[in-house]
Each structure stands twice: as C-alpha cells, then as structure tokens.
Amino acid sequence: MASNTPIEDTIRLKVTEALTPSLLEIKNDSHFHAHHKAMQGGTSKETHFSLTIISDAFRMKTQPTRHRMVYALLKDELQMEGGIHALQLKTRTLDEDLRQRAQEARPTE
To answer: pTM for the complete prediction?
Structure first.
C-alpha cells in the first residue's frame, strides 16, 4: 500500500540516515499555501514544510552551511514536479538547543 505522505516519508528517511538527529520535527504547511497562484492546479499536498533538526552533524558549521546540507539531501524532492516548493529550516546542535531551551525557560522580569 502506498503512503499518503511520500515526500514527508522521504524527508524523514534522508535526514535521519544522513544527520542522525536527536530531534526531527516535520510539519507539512502545504494547506496554508494551497490558495497561492503557483500552487493552483497542482495535485501535490506536500509542497511546503517546516523542519526542526537537532543534530551534532551541524557542530562547527554556520547556519548557511547547515541549510545547504539539508537542501543537498533533498535535492531530488526540490527539483521534481509536485515536489517540495518551500522549506523552513531550524537547524541546531544539541548544545545549542539545550542553551536555547534554558534561556526560554528563564522567567522574564
């Protein structure tokens, strides 16, 4: 039986295999963009995604380099007809994520 989310499944597989993330969140935001002119007439329900990837594979790499790594992994899905149209990426190492969570947990004055 074919998957109802083949693009999302491919994203999960490729990112997991290449980056061994401690956290991978994939949100399909396509329904928010279905009314856009570029999306009209398309049959894909998997065109816009938000990804949060926490991986030590990003250690010592700049944000642009991290994003290029993810785009390279998903090159085929970005180029295919009805594939990924847009990606929103949050890429952090585990240490960066822990620092950010600690900062967010601090009470504001």
So the answer is: 0.83
